[in-house]
Amino acid sequence: MWLTIYYIFCYLVFAYTIMLLVGYVWLVFMSRLAQRQLDVNLPDDETIKYLMQGSPLTPAVSIIAPAFNEEVTIIDSVNSIMQIDYPDYEIIIVNDESTDRTLELLIEEYKLVEVPYDIAMRVQSKPIKRVLKSTDERYSKLIVVDKVHGGRKADGSNAGINVCSNKYFVCTDVDCIIEPMALYRMMWFVINSHKPMIGVGATMLMSNGCIVEDGKVAEAAVPNTPIPMFQQLEYLRSFLISKLGWSRINALPNISGGFGLFDTDVAVKSGGYDPMSMAEDVDMLLRMVTYMKNSGQDFQLALVPKVCCWTEGPGSLKQLVRQRTRWARGLFEIVSNHRKLFFNPHYGPIGALTLPYLFLFEFIAPLFEMTGFLFMIWLTLTGGVNWSAAFLIFGMIYVFSVFISFFVMFFDYKLKAVQWKHTKSSYFKLFVATLLEPFIYHPIITYCSIVGYWRFIINTTAVWTPIQRKGVKKR
Amino acid sequence: MGTISFIKYYISLITAYCKFLFTFILYKFADYPNEIKFAALVSALCVMIILVVLLSIFWMSWLEKRKRRLRDHIEKKFGKGIEYIVSSEASEIMSDKEIQQVFELDDEDLNGSLLKNNREKQMFVNVFYLFFISKRSELSRTENIHTMLYMFNIPDYLEKEVSLGSMKHKVNALSYMRTFKLSISPWVINKLLNSRYMRVQRLAMYSNIMSSSDSALDYFETDFFDNNCCIKDEIELGFSLQRRRKMGLKLPNLARWAHIQNNEKTQCMFVRLMRRFNEIEYCGQLKDLYNQTKKKKLIEEISRTWGYLHYLDCEDMLIEALLTQPDDTKVAIMHAMTRLATGKSLNALLDGFKNTTNPHVRFEALRCIYNYGTEGRALFEELERNASDADKKYFSFFHNPITLEKIRLDKEQAYHPSVETVFNG
Fold it and tell me: Residue A325 sits in a domain of what CATH number?
């Protein structure tokens, strides 16, 4: 009987591996198709500006950035957001009752005064204490919301949604560096869509290796330190292959909380962000999809890889483990809270394809890997390993992972987004990361996933600890 | 060896290598189980693809360098001339000879082709387009631009691209021709109107509307836009109609088109365009639509248009609709009433304020009363004196210099500048 179980397990793992490989190849193919479509549909920046700048039909956007104890970077960050080039937008900075001088600095720098407000609490958030606006005409776009401490980014974002007055809002982190043309490019997809566009995502990259000048990224380089370098490769793979591929069939599973544009009305009707969720961005998007499908409305989701937002990622192993454990926990939460969407064709390609893929190849994969690893140890100890066959199969997996990462570099090169075009040394670093990732970085992520799942199962209280920021290099 | 034959050779080499490799692997692993054969094949395939991807990256890098060199060359050779033509310095119509002098070209240059091949022409168009949209002055003359483009044989090149190029080339060339106001042969337009690509069809139609006779507008008599209309269509159609108006050509009856369409989005688009093009004479035609339709958005847009265009005959209908329509639509109707500001609808606004619990509608009603000329301001002050504690928060907005700005602003004013006068009271 044990032998039968052994064979069944081996064939199951083999079938799983083949399905995973096929899934990846399919995503690469879809991503390439999406890029070709992008070549036709997204004109150069000058044309976009030429058409949108003078038109009264260009939709207005609210940029929401929650801030908690950001006194070191807050002024630079707000100045950076103000560099965005778009005809009609407002910036909403939500101060989550910072205990440092974040609010004082904002008040001093932008000459803020309290203004009357009458805000309908459309989505759940902690009470708003006051709303401040600048007396200086130059900062008329800026709104600062001072609210009772909620402790989560989602709570701050919800307060921002309650204050925002525009049809679309962008949710970002206050420390993110956004490309000046970002809104134009994203809104181009909104005005071009024949169906209601409920969400538009962008590419997120590591700001750890970048050099910033006047709030803009002057040199976009791959970080030199190993942890952020591996993350850069991982982010590129996630955005340029996985998410872009899914967006081709309108099945984008996630719009990053770091920089994403949403339809305010749909977000409000879906309940906004869940302040208790560990994966609030995926959670809100899935609720928006559920709302649209249940109310019989068609919708569109898009990812614009040529829009880039830089964020500071964990710089040390400790921080990375903490972040990824939280993400794994969030994934478990999504699988558990949105289980009725999984394998459900009623929810379109997201329910029928993306979420099953997420479940099979992202949620279960770490469990498979861990089981496989333990099984391998047992076989080694019992002398049951055919080493030449084992090396060949390991070799196949390794070569395949390198193959996917090469496509990432190829797509990165092909997209040619002006500002984040990597230099030769950056590509070399990505190449090194590609070769080493399966041995160093991937096992860490697998470990974090297992720990995250375990913590979810035993129901440990989730603690959200912000990353300790070092700030970016300035010229 | 030409590029195409080189690529063919390259592909045949790869195919032959693949065949060899697969045969070799199958031979080498003949005694192994299928799983092992599969793993070996996948690994070999991945290695080959990695090599191909690497070569492609080098190839793209080389192409890009070549493109950059060509761009620099074109900019260096013609950049100054182009800048002169699109700037305010060329505000008078120039002769061929004068333009030739600007580009420092002699007759010999003109005898041969100035731009040797399509690659150079394409780059010239790209460079010129960037100068055109970034540095163009209002005083520059379209005639000079056209003379220059003809000197470089650009219109012929673009027309060839439009008729024979791939979808991407067609779309680009059409966009360039529209931007440079170059006319396109009717036969090319007719061909494009039947293109299998929706994007090409629409661009062709917009180009046609810009310059052609009245028959260019026949397309709107059909259900061309049904289910497939987006904001960009409205922007493009608006541009085309605007250019048509500038050229002194007749503008169509947009109200009629709004009637013909079935799709709500499309109907709203035409109603919005009516206010952009100030079509007051056709406002009456919207009355039937207003009475018959149950589409909320359409009612909102018609109300707004009547308000913006100051169509006084609609006031009774607006007052009546305010009692029956849902909250979102009510706001649009109240705004329209304020723009008309005849005095007749002030009581309706007051009812609108009193008879609702929706804070947004209450605030908007108050905002409309505040902006309703002298009578409205008097009513506003009276309401403020008698306001309950709960209502006082609404009034506080009207006393703060920062929020007061917001109260007076209306994002859609850009559509029709005359509305400023309505709010000045």
Answer: 3.90.550.10
